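Sample pair:
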Amino acid sequence: MSTLLRGVRVLDFGRYIAGPFCATLLADLGADVIRIEKPAGGEDRYTVPVSADGEGAYHIQIGRNKRGMTLDPRAPEGREIVRRLVKTADVVVANLPYPALEKLSLDYDALCAVRPDIILTTGSAFGSTGPYATRGGFDTVAQAMSGAMHLSGVPGAPAKSFAPYCDFGAAALSAFGTLAALMHRRETGEGQVVEGTLLGAALAFNNAALMEEAVLALGREGSGTRGQYNAPTDSFRTRDGWVTVQIVGDGLFRRWATLVGEEAWLDDPRFSTDQARGDHGEAISDRMAAWCAGRTNAEAVSALVEAGVPCGELLTPRQLLENDHVRAAGMFQYTAYPGVKKSAPVAEHPVRYSKTPVGAFSRAPTLGEHTQEILREIGLGDEDYRRLRAKGVV
C-alpha cells in the first residue's frame, strides 16, 4: 500500500458514492480510513448486489483499503464514540445535507469543539448556498441539470451516461480538495471545510458547451454519439460490431481523409477547421459509416491504427473484461470477498505513481468487521463492545 498519507486518519461517514469514494482514494494513498455505517449497513453496501447476502459491487469497489465499523451516532453513547473518534482523526468525510450534519454533531463547529484543526470534507447535490441547498439529489439529477443529458441524446430523447460520472467526479475533486486542505494545515495548523457538489462537478465537465451557449446562443441539440466540435467523432457499425473514432486537429483529419480516399476534402472549405468539420459532421460520419460497413471490427481497427487515427472498439462489459490491453496493463485487481462466487475486478487506483505505487488492495470490510478493534483503540473494552452491541449502538 502507498505511504503518501501514512499517519492520516479519515472517518468516512459518507453515503452512496461521492463521499465514500473520496475516502477510498485517500485510503489508496495510505490513510487509515474507518468506514462508519449504520448497524444495519449503509445504503451503498447493497447497491448492485453480487453476493449471497445481497452485498453490492459498489461496496466491494469503494470499501477497499478501509476498516469498517458499525455505529448509531444518534444514540447518546454513539455520540460519545463519535467524539472519541474525532479526537483521533484528521479528516471527516460526510456527504450529508447540512441539517443532517448538525443533527449528528458532524457539522464543522461541533467537530472543531473536539478537534480544532479538523478537516471536514462534505458534499451534496447542490451545495450549502442557493435556493436548492436543502434539496437532495443523485448523479442523474446533476447530469440532467448540467445540460449534458440534453446534448447527449437526440432531439426529443435526452440520454444519460450509464456510468455515474457526476458522483465519481465529485468524489475525485473532493479528494483533491482534501489533499489541498491537508497541505494548508501542515503549513498553518488550520483545518477547514472542503465542499464538493454533484452539480459543480457536472458543470466543470460541461463548461465549454455552457460558455458557447452564453456567448453565441446557438441552442445546440443532442446528436447521439456524434460529436459537434470536430469530425469524424462518432460510433460506426462494422460487419461484426462497432468502432468509435475521434478526430481532432488538421493533422489527424488529413490522415483520416487519406485513409478513406477523400483527399479532395482537404481543400474543401466545409472541412477547413475542427469546428467547420463538426458543423458538417453528419456528412463526414456518413462517409465513415460507409467505410466501416464493409469491414470487420478487426479490419477497421487495424487500418485505423496503422494510419495513426485514434480509435477503439465499442465493447460490451464482458468484452472489456476480456480485452487484451486491459488485462496486460493490469487495470483491475481481482479481489475476493466473502459470499461472492468469483473474485471481483476492482478498478485500479486511477493514477499511477513512479515512486509511491498504490500496491495491492485490501478487500472491503464485512459489516462491522473492525468495530471491536476500533473501539479498543479509543479506550473501550470488550465488555463495552458486547454491551453496546446488545443495545444496537454498534
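The first helix runs from residue 18 to 28.
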